[in-house]
Amino acid sequence: MDKFTTLTGVAAPMPLVNIDTDMIIPKQFLKTIQRSGLGKNLFDEMRYTPDGQEIPDFVLNQPAYRSAQILVAGDNFGCGSSREHAPWALLDFGIRCVISTSFADIFYNNCFKNGILPVVLPQDAVDYLMDDARKGANARITVDLESQTVTASDGRTFAFEVDPFKKHCLLNGLDDIGLTLEKAAAIDAFEAKAATLRPWA
Amino acid sequence: MTAPRTLYDKIWDDHVVHQAEDGTCLLYIDRHLVHEVTSPQAFEGLRMAGRKVRAPEKTIAVPDHNVPTTQGRENPDQMPEESRIQVAALDRNARDFGIHYYPVTDVRQGIVHIVGPEQGWTLPGMTVVCGDSHTATHGAFGALAHGIGTSEVEHVLATQTLIQKKSKNMKVEITGSLRPGVTAKDITLSVIGATGTAGGTGYVIEYCGQAIRELSMEGRMTVCNMAIEGGARAGLIAPDEKTFEYVKGRPHAPKGAKWEAALAYWKTLYTDEGAHFDKVVTIRGEDIAPVVTWGTSPEDVLPITGTVPDPESFTGGKVEAARRSLDYMGLKPGMKLTDIAIDTVFIGSCTNGRIEDLRAAAEILKGRKIKVKRAMVVPGSGLVRAQAEEEGLAQIFIDAGFEWRLAGCSMCLAMNPDQLQPGERCAATSNRNFEGRQGRGGRTHLMSPAMAAAAAITGHLTDVRELMGETV
After folding, report:
1. A165–B436: do the CB atoms touch at under 8 Å?
2. How many CB atoms lie within 10 A of CB B460?
3. Does residue B168 belong to the interface with chain A, where contact is any CB pair within 8 Å?
């Protein structure tokens, strides 16, 4: 997993609430057995006509946002299916950070496993950054994980909260499984105890 | 004496392997269910790192999302190449890593969340995970069950644990009894309608109250299944005699002395008097009507007697979302919901693909004919299908004009050939009405099996109570 430290980039505004993982990556693209290559189908049904032509109005098809690295989105982003194909598609497109007032639980966790930082901010801060994002390619937003801040193009700064363990893993690009396997002795001990307490399980 | 604990607190406490100073826990996983769509990259990750599956005896795999539901599907040529590759990958991974497997040719194959309880893999007090958001279903047994992403699937395969922070406790109480024609699906949709799709975010919900106690295990699974649509990590119902009765004698349920020991433990699985809930929602069972969804979010719920709402009646970002929904759904504010014509009826899914669901639909369909263009029943498992045939339900569906399919996820997410065409409108017993969910441009109205059967008979959204001879 790639580290996430700081990121300065173009932010695309997506004010729609409840953007679900079916919108982010429709099911026909879940048939892959790989993690890569999904970026071209990110937001597929919002981004292309049924015959594959780009829909010019869609934000990521607009010249200013074709290389966006940040999304500023409406409430409850990533709701629905647990498909990790959603963060894989975002990452493959080049999105490394999503800012919203709230995220669905599974999507939120999935982001951290893939080097993507989901940032939760209050409504007024998201509104401010949404307006900033609407300025297009001239307005670059900076996200700093170490200091836990988002800075708008005019220098206005917003602080956000993040779980210390998730932050540590993301800053250092750490592999969860490797960390857990260091605790193998504790897992062995738990299994031995559980075999006595709950032998049917 | 320890402080009073909720059911969630108790299950959590019994599965903590390690707790860090910041509260991050390593949680032990008792059952890991696996399907073909969200697991290939996880198994590939294991291979690349030279890791094994730590507890293959606690890992159960079944293909369900991609598989065709038409006859002759054991022939791989029935599947598009990508689906075939994905199912073949699961076949191979199950064999290579030595995990339990129900291939498509096995009568026990079905939707993973129906197979788990049916085979007795899911037991009270367990932790159950799967790379699928509807894992919440298993909470009906008083098991802590939730969906995970593929990276976490790999983590569980390798370590039989998950890195977790504890969620908050939320209580959803349904008091009193349900009125005739009102089902578990109406409960769970009504709760989401009341709390919103993010109302449960950060919480584990415990459903309780008389109306929940009065539900069968099938109904309880329907309620917990859609906890995720309310944003919750998991939904739980305390186990009781109905739970024990359902579990007893299942192939993987404990037997003999182990059964007695398990039963003694399971009877401790309830929320203590005075335990703290961070959020409480109470709904009167008598106030719940048969409901349908009108929009493209599961929170867009109204009683069938209602009318399509005006987007301007909402606030904030929901105004624009409702406008977009009505445009997508081809509806106008003020329309009576019962005037909405239906093209297709889909009965099935992990929400409503169990035997009781098929009985409820068949009850309405008996001796009647469908007026919609097409209607299909997709039983949740091969065993549900066999039982429905034995009870004569299959013949009722066929006589009414329904297609009688083989088990799978089918048109719930439309990864297999069962899909809606653009503009096609479907009365569905599944769990999501998102844009494009059942096929690009397809329009989904969620409802109970009885309500879907009623729509099939009349050709439009219908109050099932009118077909039951009940006064509204």
Report:
1. no
2. 18
3. no
Copy the structure tokens of residue B198: 């993010």
**Cβ-Cβ contacts under 8 Å for B17 (sequence gap 6 or more):** A183, A186, A187, A190, B25, B26, B27, B28, B161
- A84/B150 CB distance under 8 A: yes
Helix axes B40-49 and B150-159, enclosed angle (nearest 10): 50
Distance from CA of A75 to the nearest CA of B (A): 8
B51 vs A174: CA distance, rounded Å = 17
The reply to whether B205 touches chain A by the CB within 8 Å rule is: no
Closest by CA to B133, choosing from A91, A21, A42, A25, is A21
Separation of alpha carbons B395 and B402, rounded Å = 9
Per-residue pLDDT of chain B (472 residues; tens, 9 = 90+): 689 999 999 999 999 999 999 999 999 999 999 999 999 999 999 999 999 999 999 999 999 999 999 999 988 888 899 999 999 999 999 999 999 999 999 999 999 999 999 999 999 999 999 999 999 999 999 999 999 999 999 999 999 999 999 999 999 999 999 999 999 999 999 999 999 999 999 999 999 999 999 999 999 999 999 999 999 999 999 999 999 999 999 999 999 999 999 999 999 999 999 999 999 999 999 999 999 999 999 999 999 999 999 999 999 999 999 999 999 999 999 999 999 999 999 999 999 999 999 999 999 999 999 999 999 999 999 999 999 999 999 999 999 999 999 999 999 999 999 999 999 999 999 999 999 999 999 999 999 999 999 999 999 999 999 999 644 4
Among B35, B60, B201, the strongest candidate for a mutation testing the A interface, having the largest count of A CBs within 10 A, is: B201
Asked if A168 reaches chain B (Cβ–Cβ under 8 Å), the answer is no
Cα–Cα distance between B279 and B275 in angstroms, integer?
12
State the DSSP string of B38-90.
SSHHHHHHHHHHT---S-GGGEEE---SS---STTTTSGGGS-HHHHHHHHHH
Q: Select from A22, A163, A176 the Cβ nearest to the Cβ of B437.
A: A22
- Phi, psi angles (nearest 5°) of residue B195: -100, -20
Q: How far is A142 from chain B (nearest CA, A)?
A: 25
Task: Give the three-state DSSP class for B330.
Answer: coil
Q: Does B151 sit within 8 Å of A176, measured CB to CB?
A: yes
Interface contacts (A, B; CB < 8 Å): 186
Strand order in the sheet with B279-284: B234-236, B203-208, B168-175, B279-284
A27/B317 CB distance under 8 A:
no
d(CA B416, CA B396): 26
Beta carbons of A22 and B126 less than 8 Å apart: no
Query: Taking a C-beta distance cutoff of 8 angstroms, is the pair B453, B347 a contact?
Result: yes
SS3 call for B162? strand
- From B51, which residue of chain A is nearest by alpha-carbon distance? A177
**Any chain B CB within 8 A of the CB of A69?**
no
Spatial distance between the Cα atoms of B188 and B223, rounded to a whole number of angstroms: 5
ipTM above 0.85, yes or no: yes
Interface of B with A in 379-438 (CB under 8 A): 413-415, 422, 432, 434-437
